[in-house]
Design brief:
seven-stranded mixed beta sheet, 40% helix, Aspartate Aminotransferase, domain 2, 12 strands, three-stranded antiparallel beta sheet, alpha/beta, 12 helices
């Protein structure tokens, strides 16, 4: 199989990640923070070391301000519902994932909050102007995807962070499509909460998410056992315990730790250059094929993540993906859990097919996919 669906979940995983998962089962099989025996203590130490590694990698606010979740969606829900209160106003981009829009939509439907969507198809200056004009005295937070999971467009995160800080607004960033691919420093970019999955470009396994934060989160959405202050019925107020109820995903944490080591060894810039080069070449090839529709204007380096959305005229995106699958090529199609992005790019009727390579993708495999797409385009 030619796997080009890495923006959903990276595959294959580095050998070091596979080994780390096995180590998590064998060496760190105890429950971290729940017992006093050696295996539990070793597991707790591994968790703390991984928090430190993640904090350093993303320029966070301390190891205690790194929480592990089930996935990026949980991280975003914890940040959103832990910060936004009744009567607050929120600003979001027009390319947000449903992991952001659905929690906000539910809160709005209950009459608790209001939010505005800022059109983000224009230039960085137009985007910044749109956000600044929409700020009201009740605006509590700006929530912004770092890059569109469908169209790859990168948002001006640093400039938005500066705007948020200047206006006294909390800045929450969804880094699902950028963590491990693009440079992120929370302090430098004035990010209050940074949410990400472990299973995409950090190369970990599924079932693990990461939330880095400052002191902005005041409320919890899940309460329970934390291994600390167990004789108190109130949820602990100390971080990260306040946000981590229940047993942690030890194998997932080990995989993320090994994944970050892999990125540091290979070089994040080198990984991006490889994937970007493949996507740029694929775009050039597809642009010369009749009946293929492309949506990325230029794929300017560092302005787009390495994903390439396209469609074939008259065919639904899922039909194209099904044909490619029958030929042993794995891509993503449909609406990618991002209805706002499809409305913005006017693909709400057929969705989009998305190609997303990884550090392991070879040029010959991408060429094979392009040839198959060409055959599909010729048949319509």
């Amino acid at each position: 199989m030619i796997y080009l669906d890495n923006a959903a979940t990276s595959y294959p995983k580095p050998e070091s990640v596979t080994n780390a998962v096995l180590e998590g089962i064998i060496k760190y099989g105890g429950n971290p923070g729940r017992s006093g025996h050696d295996m539990s203590i070793n597991a707790a130490q591994k968790v703390f070391e991984t928090r430190e590694k993640i904090n350093a990698f993303f320029g966070g606010y301390g190891a205690e301000n790194v929480a592990f979740t089930y996935n990026c969606t949980y991280a975003l829900n914890i940040a959103i519902k832990g910060i936004i209160n009744e009567g607050d106003h929120v600003l979001v981009t027009s390319i947000e994932h449903n992991a952001v829009l659905r929690p906000l939509y539910k809160l709005k439907n209950k009459g608790k909050i209001s939010y505005d969507i800022i059109n983000c198809k224009g230039s960085d200056n137009e985007i910044l102007t749109g956000f600044e004009k929409a700020i009201t005295p009740k605006t509590k937070a700006i929530i912004c995807t770092h890059s569109s999971n469908v169209f790859g467009k990168v948002m001006p995160i640093k400039e938005l962070g500066e705007l948020a800080k200047r206006k006294g607004i909390i800045f929450i960033v969804d880094a699902a499509g950028s963590a491990g691919i693009l440079h992120i420093n929370m302090r430098d970019m004035n990010i209050n909460c940074l949410c990400m999955p472990g299973h995409k470009s950090i190369y970990g396994i599924t079932g693990i998410g990461i939330l880095l934060f400052d002191g902005s989160i005041k409320n919890t959405i899940i309460e329970g056992g934390t291994g600390s202050r167990s004789f108190e019925l109130a949820q602990p107020s100390i971080f990260p315990d306040m946000l981590e109820s229940g047993t942690l995903n030890m194998t997932g944490i080990c995989s993320v730790s090994a994944g970050i080591d892999f990125i540091l060894k290979e070089g994040m810039t080198n990984i991006y250059e490889h994937e970007y080069g493949l996507i740029k070449e694929a775009m050039n090839d597809l642009s010369g094929i009749k009946n293929v529709i492309l949506y990325s204007e230029s794929l300017e380096k560092n302005k787009y993540t390495p994903v390439l959305p396209f469609n074939v005229k008259t065919l639904h995106s899922e039909r194209v993906a099904a044909i490619l699958c029958s030929k042993g090529i794995a891509v993503r199609a449909g609406f990618h859990c991002a209805c706002a992005a499809h409305i913005t790019y006017k693909t709400e009727s057929i969705g989009a097919v998305r190609i997303s390579p990884s550090v392991y993708t070879e040029k010959k495999d991408l060429k094979s996919a392009i040839n198959c797409i060409s055959q599909i385009a010729k048949s319509v």
